Inverse folding.
DNA sequence: GTGAAAGCGCTAACAT
DNA sequence: ATGTTAGCGCTTTCAC
């Protein structure tokens, strides 16, 4: 900037004014400065700018589990769209469901002085963020609640959705329903399993541990679990898959066997309507989840010290069972 | 940091040394400083650190078209993995295929003093980046080449893949092959179309404009285009879809009609093996594409002024036609 | 081994 | 309307 000022024969401050499009600068000086900027290939250093002017790095951090998962990719997209409306960019970091990594990444993002944080938590304890929040970095949690910290949160109605899914299968007359879930360690899985059990209990069905399969990490494992359940005595006549990766594996195995068991899957996915079996899903609006979280974050950035809010978004059953 | 120094009864510089884990500091002072850091909730400001120490923001920029597209999400994931190995985070920005947006975002990333740039270009002219490159921000282009700028580039063998796809259909005896593409404005589409035409020409087939459909943006448009081609006189007996969104639309329409036309699609996708029709695809290793680009970028960041390289990665035909 | 002073590139607060 | 000065929070240089 000093060079530009010298080149244009004006003071450093005038260059600053021109670069920041401040009013009240003679057109002639503006032109001279811009010419010098062009000639010297000057680029304003936003780090220095942010450092001096207090805060506002125009950057927000997004912490998710895994960007290659379409659910998180959608969240990243919407968050970036909302951020763009506030002239901000997104630093996206993936925790891979590892609480240690999560904490390191969140601390790193804070050290970079992001204006705010959008977090899908992996761990159980986020009290380490309290210092940062008090120092003025707003945090909004989405999809899962924070642990040990009162903060803005946007969630899905996992419990209600799971209830609706099981009730749908009960309504079709099923009495033995296999439930498959990723990991009981994940909040959304616990909620969905809870909702399913509520519906099963309300229908007067006894708890049967053979009909609940935990630790189903991917489609292949799901297919194996289905095979095992079907080969056991008194097999299920329907399956409730608690996420879409599991759903795909269930469908694959049933199709492979020409089985006529019914399937309801939690989470819709892009090609669900092209699956070789009729498939009913519990759908929700991922974009809306991200939009609400991002807008809440920017509201907090603009105006702090509001009471934390928790928003719960509805799910809906999409019946593709009639084919 | 001043506060911490006062609190610990040491100089500012000693705090800096401790925070940066510099050697040659008495253990007693280290302990006192760390205690003060904890007590005051001190967090090193990485902006100030980067500003003073010259460069190294430990941040790289990734410019893609659309993060919700699984192809780009995979690139973002791998880039983040490689970056993590160099203690760096990723700022991901989406141009939405808009060259104006692309230029604004790239300039913004440079203003934030990212250490390097990973770019899937949308526009044709990237000469505006020359100044930044000369100022020491390395840039690696991937999936598509840069315009008006000599730079490191990692590409796929689009042309060879398309040739192989068409040759596969010719080998099955097809002589009327419908080709559907997104937009001739996109580099990869031009290359793939070029490869397809090379194979068709080599087989002695005349050019027939009715068999090439441009502007197929999404599965619905693809389905409509297929319907129109099939309803025309002398319809195609096979289709070559130049990307996976088109492939999905083609499959959907053929399945809907119980058509027995063959399909080859460029790009593999997650559920391609569960499609209701036999589907052969031209696959490639997206992770490898991103890995090579990211590692090249970090090599350039570590050691500049090397001659720009262009790497072309192979594609392979995955035959799922026998079902 | 530790500290004082200077300054990275910029902007806020004040002159002029 | 323009320029001068101080200083954001940190690291570098060099003296102790």
């Amino acid at each position: 900037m000093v060079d530009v000022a010298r080149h244009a024969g004006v003071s450093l401050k005038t260059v600053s004014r021109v670069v920041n499009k401040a009013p009240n600068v003679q057109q002639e000086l503006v032109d001279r400065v811009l010419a010098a900027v062009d000639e010297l290939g000057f680029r304003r250093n936003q780090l220095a700018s942010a450092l001096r002017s207090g805060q506002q790095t125009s950057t927000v951090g997004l912490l998710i589990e895994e960007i290659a998962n379409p659910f998180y990719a959608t969240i990243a997209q919407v968050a970036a769209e909302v951020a763009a409306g506030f002239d901000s960019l997104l630093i996206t970091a993936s925790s891979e469901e590892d609480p240690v990594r999560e904490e390191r990444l969140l601390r790193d993002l804070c050290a970079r002085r992001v204006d705010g944080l959008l977090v899908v938590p992996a761990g159980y304890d986020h009290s380490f963020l309290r210092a940062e929040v008090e120092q003025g970095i707003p945090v909004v949690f989405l999809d899962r609640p924070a642990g040990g910290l009162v903060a803005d949160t946007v969630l899905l109605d996992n419990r209600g959705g799971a209830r609706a899914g099981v009730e749908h299968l009960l309504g079709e007359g099923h009495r033995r329903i296999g439930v498959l879930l990723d990991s009981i360690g994940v909040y959304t899985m616990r909620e969905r399993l809870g909702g399913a059990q509520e519906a099963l209990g309300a229908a007067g069905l006894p708890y049967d541990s053979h009909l609940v399969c935990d630790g189903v990490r991917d489609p292949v494992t799901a297919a194996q679990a289905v095979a095992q359940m079907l080969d056991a005595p008194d097999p299920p006549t329907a399956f409730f898959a608690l996420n879409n990766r599991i759903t795909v594996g269930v469908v694959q195995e049933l199709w492979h066997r020409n089985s006529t068991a019914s399937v309801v899957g939690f989470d819709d996915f892009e090609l669900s309507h092209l699956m070789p079996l009729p498939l009913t899903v519990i759908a929700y609006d991922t974009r809306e989840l991200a939009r609400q979280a991002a807008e809440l974050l920017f509201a907090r950035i603009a105006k702090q010290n509001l009471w934390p809010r928790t928003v719960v978004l509805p799910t809906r059953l999409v019946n593709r069972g009639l084919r």
